[in-house]
Amino acid sequence: MNANELRQKYIDFFLSKGHARIQGKSLLPENDPTVLFTTAGMHPLVPYLLGEEHPAGKRLVNFQKCIRTGDIDAVGDQSHLTFFEMLGNWSLGEYFKEGAIRMSYEFLTSPQWLGISHEKLGVTVFAGEEGIPKDDESAAVWRTLGFSDERISYRPREDNWWGPAGATGPCGPDSEMFIDMGKAPCGPDCAPGCGCGKWLEIWNDVFMQYNKDKEGAYIPLARKCVDTGMGVERTVTILSGKKSVYDTEIFAPIIAAIERAVAGEAAKKYKYGTDGEKDRSVRIIADHIRASTFILGDPKAVMPSNVGAGYVLRRLIRRAVRHGRKIGVEGRFLAPIAEVIINEFCGPYPELEQNRALILNELEKEEQRFLETLLKGEKEFEKLLPNLLKDPKKVMSGRLAFRLYDTFGFPIELTEELAKENALSVNRLEFDAAFAKHQETSRAGGDQIFKGGLADHSEITTKYHTATHLLQKALQLVLGPHVAQKGSNITAERMRFDFSHGAPMTKDEIARVESIVNEQIERDIPVTMEVSDLEAAKANGATALFGEKYEAQVKVYTIGDFSKEVCGGPHVEHTGTLGRFKIEKEQSSSSGVRRIRAVLS
To answer: Is 418 a member of any domain?
Structure first.
């Protein structure tokens, strides 16, 4: 079964169970400013897991693109990825543990769907801890489905607890499903969830029972929800009998394109699968360019930069370039690989085709910039190497590593890779101290690493979110109809709002915007919501984020006769509760985008 077939079967199964298909969302999260990327299928649904009503109903299904960078240094082995796809289904207060488990089991084992043998399956459930009971409820459901106690493993928090993606949010115990890979058990205690390689996870049912607050307390949710996740790449690997995600049809055309890029004598000497170290480089290139293509092709794409999500993108591209050189690539090669990725994935993700020119152009520009940096940095490292190897401790000082970064633009991660290849390490603490000092003097503001969204759904954060609606309309009235929201970051202390505009605002313009917003607050206008067809909402004057994916049915928030927007976030009931609005700073965010930082008092 290939990836396209798996996605379709998953959607079809849950449609048959009364779920509504919803759109996958951006890789840049709107509802969690504590992370740079959407790291799980649940991310875009956090407001609904916390109690918001979803316009599509209480049973939902979709597939979602995700990025996790915590294991970026492990990419290159047989399984780790930075970009991956998650299949997910949700219950927002309808079925809970029994319903989710029974549907999961049916999809896995029914010949109509995946047809996996019951005998190959094992499961895990939460073992409990002080203050949180063990999950006997899930275990009992699995027993009714024919699982013996030997195939049900109770596991601790690190294995069977789903925490919030950021510091706060919905969380709870989970029950995971594993495939027996046919290996001999590692010992008498080997059971589902054991990391010896006998058991491989295929699916995860998360039972959202709690909300973790800022104090770290777990508050029971009034409405219990289910969030399940099945990784496309891993499941295709299992169903196709492959040993690695990189051996599947998902990566075959990408790896073939990388092989075509290898030039001259190197091409005669190397073919993927024949050299372990070069194979690792090929896998890094395949993963990193796939991730970069999706980031650049996103409706809310960031460009390569030195902060936040843009820095992650730059790191992925530059690491791919360096590993290209290691396998014999000469000159630029990223754009042809990205072309293959766009062609392969534009069916389920049409935004890649829509942004094809931008993707290829940015990859070519960043690759050219880095090739120049790479040559200088590697040359300088080679000069340092003889003295470094004489050091009995085999440690490169952070001071030297920072000089490579500051003088030649050479990323610390690549310095560490070069050092490791020569049996050296880098004093990272010393580098980080030098880098932090550099940041203090060279970068204004300390919150640029975050991209959009609400830190929580507290009363004050809700006020700030409502105020962004007033701000956007006021900006359009003062600066012109071209103004459109490009991102937001909202906490209980302040709002940050990015918008399209080509020039700094004057003092008079800032004062007029403040005055308009405060006038609407003083009017104490009611804030109303209705569920509407998207096209009808637009026809009636509602503003929607350009490029965002919306469901057919959307929530439309209207603030009197002043503002009408398609939005899924929390809002106050009338504007008089907001307080006094004050713009503290207006500055550039990126080319053609301005940033406002404002407070309510």
So the answer is: yes
